[in-house]
UniProtKB/TrEMBL annotation:
The keyword Protease does not apply. This is Periplasmic binding protein/LacI transcriptional regulator. GO terms for molecular function: carbohydrate binding. It comes from Collimonas fungivorans (strain Ter331). It comes from the Bacteria. InterPro entries: Peripla_BP_I, SBP_2_dom. Residues 1-31 form the signal peptide. The lineage of its organism: Bacteria, Pseudomonadati, Pseudomonadota, Betaproteobacteria, Burkholderiales.
Length: 326
């Protein structure tokens, strides 16, 4: 009896193995087809972006996803071209981080017509038709702006009487983080009429532009400037150089507030040159791979997936630095 059972089991097992192997060789449905993901990245404008790209590439490898990666060099036209090429290549899913918010309806309509799901990561689009994308994974940029504003509102309580003049370095014109970080900050500082934004200009999220624009601010307003609010760490780091070259002390003569929380910001805080950074996590890769697989498996995913983040003032920089992953 026992032998018979064993025999049967063995027979069934080997039959199954044979079948599996047979199908495997023929390249059947048994061999799981890797997911092909077309990803259009903004560019390589900042430390944040470099970490974001690394996260996406690593996560794709880990998840066994075949990644087709295109760098748009901060140009919307390049992203549109990349998306069209992904559609032509019939990838399974398209993900992208839109450089600016508007102007996507046509190309996203083309992806929809080709039945290729689109996932937004990091930055949002302002499309009225929400069916043009499945979900948006990324930070709440308005809240980040508010967090920067709240830090200053608190700090202002201990500052000398009189106006507190702020200069603002905006991110890329028309990008979701630039629009939202400006709005969130303005909303909060409105509570204290002493806080005045005297100048606001784009530094395109880069160190070089941040420095250049800060130099111009210093030339015209020099000693009047009390605070710099930069929409990302890279522009703040560029501006810090400009402040030093103008013979002033960043972090003291001019308070410096920025967003992202990259290692460079922690180094600047430990050197006493940056006062606070509001965290914005670029480590979106693992979540993107997970969501891409869920979407392709026909599961419903939330329309908005928000990243969890905190605020790091200079006082905690040295303690937090060893824990930073980007
Ligand atoms: O803050 C900045 C990058 O879209 C959140 O883009 C991202 C922003 C980030 O260049 O450093």
């Amino acid at each position: 009896m026992e032998t018979a059972m064993k025999m049967t089991r063995r027979t069934v097992l080997s039959a199954a193995l044979c079948l599996g192997l047979g199908f495997g060789i023929a390249g059947s449905a048994y061999a799981e087809k890797p997911v092909v993901l077309g990803f259009s990245q903004v560019g390589a404008e900042s430390e944040w972006r470099t970490a974001n790209t690394a996260s996406i590439k690593d996560a794709a490898k880990q998840a066994g996803v075949t990644l087709k990666f295109a760098d748009a060099q901060q140009k919307q036209e390049n992203q549109v071209k990349a998306i069209r090429s992904f559609i032509a290549q019939k990838v399974d899913v398209i993900a992208f981080s839109p450089v600016v918010e508007s102007g996507w309806d046509t190309v996203l309509g083309e992806a929809k017509a080709a039945k290729i799901p689109v996932i937004l990561t990091d930055r949002a689009v302002d499309a009225k038709d929400k069916s043009l994308y499945v979900t948006f994974i990324g930070s709440d940029f308005v809240e980040e702006g508010r967090r920067a504003g709240r830090w200053l509102l608190e700090r202002a309580k201990t500052m000398p009487a009189g106006d507190i003049n702020i200069v603002e370095l905006q991110g890329t014109v028309g990008s979701a983080p630039a629009i939202d970080r400006k709005a969130g900050f303005a909303e909060i500082i409105a509570a204290n009429p002493k806080l005045k934004v005297i100048r606001s200009q784009t530094g395109d999220f880069t160190r070089a532009k941040g420095k250049e624009v800060m130099e111009a601010f210093l030339k015209t307003d020099g000693k009047k400037i009390n605070v710099l609010y930069a929409h990302n760490d890279d522009m703040a780091i560029g501006a810090i150089q400009a402040i030093e070259e103008a013979g002033l002390k960043p972090g003291k003569d001019i308070l410096v507030i920025s967003i992202d929380g990259v290692k460079g910001a922690f180094e600047a805080m430990m050197a006493g040159k940056l006062n606070v950074t509001v965290e914005c996590s670029p480590l979106l890769g693992p979540q993107l791979m997970k969501v891409a697989k869920q979407v392709l498996a026909g599961e419903t995913v939330p329309k908005r997936i928000t990243t969890e983040e905190s605020v790091f003032p200079a006082e905690v920089a040295a303690k937090e630095f060893p824990n930073r992953k980007y």
